[in-house]
Amino acid sequence: MAQSNIKVAVQKFGNFLSSMVMPNISAFIAWGLITALFIPTGFIPNESLAKMVSPMVTYLLPILIGYSGGKLVHDQRGAVVGAIATMGVIAGADIPMFLGAMVIGPLGGWVIKKFDQMIEGKVRAGFEMLVNNFSAGILGAILAILAFLGVGPVIDAFTGWLVAGVDWLVGTGLLPLTSILIEPAKVLFLNNAINHGVLSPIGVEQVKETGQSILFLLEANPGPGIGVLLAYMFFGKGAAKKSAPGAGIIHFFGGIHEIYFPYILMRPMLFLAVILGGMSGVFTLVLLGGGLFAPSSPGSILAITAVTPHHAGAYIANFAGVIVAAAVSFIVSAFILKTGKQGEEDIEAATKKMQEMKGKKSSVAGAITADQGAMPDNVSKIIFACDAGMGSSAMGASLLRKKVKEAGMDISVTNMAISNLPGDAQIVITQEELTPRAKNKVPNAYHISVDNFLSSPEYDKLISELKFPANSQLHEIVEDADDNGTENHEQDKETAHEDDLLRPENVFLNKEFTNKDEAIRFAGRALVDAGYVEESYIEAMIERDNMTSTYMGNDVAIPHGTEEAKKAVIKSGFTVLQVPNGVDFDGQKVRLIFGIAGKDGTHLEILSGIAVTCSEMENIEKMAGAKTAQEIIDIIGKK
């Protein structure tokens, strides 16, 4: 238990540090780009424009980190005080204060948070703005002075020790051993904190002296990760094998290292592969004199190329470091995957585990899982997307827009090209072959695939889910029955009558049940007595509810049998149980229970009527208060 608590604490700490850096990666990229272009050894040396390099690394980047750290603790007021305090560590040191900003920024947010808690409810009306502004200014100034006198010099001295330690590691040939810590730390989401909080400040000092630093490549080298993904491409199984090529492209060219973490979490032995790959890459870089003149943000081969010193020796050394790391990681990973006894890897479970460790949803999770996504709450917009956004998607949007209007919902339906999908898209509808592209563009949206924009049952299903969210399960029942009854559907439909599907004697009023099992068994027994199903169907109804609750929302449950139990259905039929005082279904109160037996699709029409009827609470109240069986049948029949 203690070990688990330590692991959780480390993961939370790593996520907190990374959350200070990640919002500001674009600023690191801007600094790296200006450095790569305009310094004396850059692509287009420009003495005037190069003057921006030093102020950006000295002031801009640390202040942004301190601002983000304060905001994490106490929103905007914490951000402002954190930024003010960060100026103290900047002025009190002679090196870029990334690490100092990570300390003083959150501290500033914490101090102003505690102050606000102390005065909460004690400030007289009309003086709030005065107190807020002066408190933030005074406390920020005090923290800046303390940081200048204490924190800055301490961090400066600590960084000096780290520089000396790195020089010693390089001199003794032990620098490759840092991969033993760095590679596992990545998976704990300490990578950005290590890279930008520790390695980057030391690297900047080395660049001042030698023009480049190997430290910028210790964490950013994409070699170990691409080696693991290549091994999965050749020797993996199932979804992991299929998703590895796309993940490899995102990792190697996009620089998003977290995309390969789930592949390691599936096979923890692969930690050995990335450690040995990292060590081999660092050894190669030391041997050939590799290094960068600015941090590589993100850690992609393109970014590394951009900040490699512009001479052949540096390019050869850096590319060799990446290639060797990838080769060693690939060989070790391939051996582990080939000799392991585990079955098909569960990439989705591993991705969920990674997101739990990260503490939030991964932006790249959709690229390595086939998850449709979760139906969002409070849907306000549905987007049809196609390649150009002008033809098929426009027609599909017009059809669904009409259905939405008829359903009385205030939801806009628009169409556009996939390339123009906004990051906050809620529901995206695409043709099947275009869905992967849409998922890559907006992985957090709820995605729906259709065969034909002009005619798709997905439209009605979506409308029903939006009006009555739990109806998705009911639609699955409809679809299952439809699939199994395609051949005889029309013929049987002619002989089946609604009166035979739901008869007054199968509607039971004012029932009382102690638990859901008792209620489900009663519904099953009624189906048996009515001649709809065989005796075995009752237990199948219990089994089905245990698999996934048959509670549908709106005080309604629809117990039915399992897939295997369809052979026990003699003919389609329903039974209705009215439970005015309700019965508990897994913590939910149910007042209406519809027992269902479906065969050859003959029950689809009345089932659809039940779905529409139960989507409105007004109808639920009427049926729950009905005095006769015929009243309930009539309410369903009117829909």
From TrEMBL:
It comes from Mesobacillus foraminis. Homodimer. The phosphoenolpyruvate-dependent sugar phosphotransferase system (sugar PTS), a major carbohydrate active transport system, catalyzes the phosphorylation of incoming sugar substrates concomitantly with their translocation across the cell membrane. The enzyme II CmtAB PTS system is involved in D-mannitol transport. The chain crosses the membrane at residues 25-44, 79-112, 133-155, 161-182, 270-294, 314-337. Pfam families: PTS_EIIA_2, PTS_EIIC, PTS_IIB. The lineage of its organism: Bacteria, Bacillati, Bacillota, Bacilli, Bacillales. This is Mannitol-specific phosphotransferase enzyme IIA component. Keywords: Cell inner membrane, Cell membrane, Kinase, Membrane, Phosphoprotein, Phosphotransferase system, Sugar transport, Transferase, Transmembrane, Transmembrane helix, Transport. Residues 500-639 form the PTS EIIA type-2 domain. It is found in: Cell inner membrane. Its EC number is 2.7.1.197. One of its GO terms (molecular function) is protein-N(PI)-phosphohistidine-mannitol phosphotransferase system transmembrane transporter activity. It is a multi-pass membrane protein. It catalyses: D-mannitol(out) + N(pros)-phospho-L-histidyl-[protein] = D-mannitol 1-phosphate(in) + L-histidyl-[protein]. CDD domains: PTS_IIA_fru (cd00211), PTS_IIB_mannitol (cd05567). Its main location: membrane. Residues 380-474 form the PTS EIIB type-2 domain. GO terms for biological process: phosphoenolpyruvate-dependent sugar phosphotransferase system.
